[in-house]
Amino acid sequence: MLIRSRRGWELPEAAATPEGVYHDRRALLKAAGLGLIAAGLPTLPAWAAAGPPADPSAARYPVPRNERYTLDRALSAERDVTTYNNFYEFGSHKGIWMAAQKLPVRPWTVAIDGMVEQPMNLDIDQLLDRMPLEERLYRHRCVEAWAMAVPWSGFPLKALVDMARPLGSAKYLTMQTFKDSKVASGQREFWYPWPYTEGLRLDEATNDLAFIATGLYGKPMPPQNGAPLRLVTPWKYGFKSVKSIVRFTFTDKRPRTFWDTVGPAEYGFWANVNPDIPHPRWSQKTERLLGSDERVPTQLYNGYADHVAHLYAGMEGERLYM
Prior knowledge:
Layout: H1 20-32, H2 46-49, H3 78-81, E1 109-114, E2 120-123, H4 124-130, E3 134-141, E4 146-156, H5 157-164, E5 172-177, E6 197-201, H6 202-205, E7 211-216, E8 219-220, E9 230-232, E10 245-251, H7 258-262, E11 286-289, E12 295-297, H8 305-308
């Protein structure tokens, strides 16, 4: 008899929310090649309903689903995920999605440098050609205590690390977003340490869950969600997920990240989700599901403890959580 062990983020099949609507939509997108089928789907903003802007990567989507990464809750509505965003480069409010449409995602060059055998600069489409694109369903938990469930398209961060061939002395991976205050008005706020910088220890970066997202809902990534490349680490609070990445730097020093610089008493380097450690200004015991008023209990490591807890064994002296 075959006995299947469930992972920490999964529910029994009988308890899981059906994904029929989303599967139907994927099939229709595959057949049509573009656009949305309106019947039975949430109303989307005009720019989304018309399909993505001219993007050389559009024909790559939808990408194959990796069934290893499933969910214990319904997918969030695409409308909510694409219009309720944090992207401080374009402002500090949740309605920045319209302003973010100014972000040009072509041409886009990605630098890979630091402690690597050979630094390189790649055009985004060259990079996508070299990466194994797939879709994963992940929880996303914001430090502000709201949550969503998203079908991300992209590739394992480990694939990029393997391509970069870091030196044995490298211990961390630093990631930076673009810097262009003519496009991103939020970058004119001089008190912020632009460009937005984030980082992972290399064993975190090569963990199976660490993901570089290039799309969502079967289409290329919209600008407001971090086009054309964003980090996704589902066991950490969302501010770790640096958007619109232009540089990956391998280093032997822990990077000083954006929010750890702005508010070190509130936002640390590790940012692992833990319901028992409150933010200094609010509880993390529960989270609000995006698109509703429903609150559900927060899980340690956002429900991914089985996959990542070993990374932090013996680090009791570190401030691992908010």
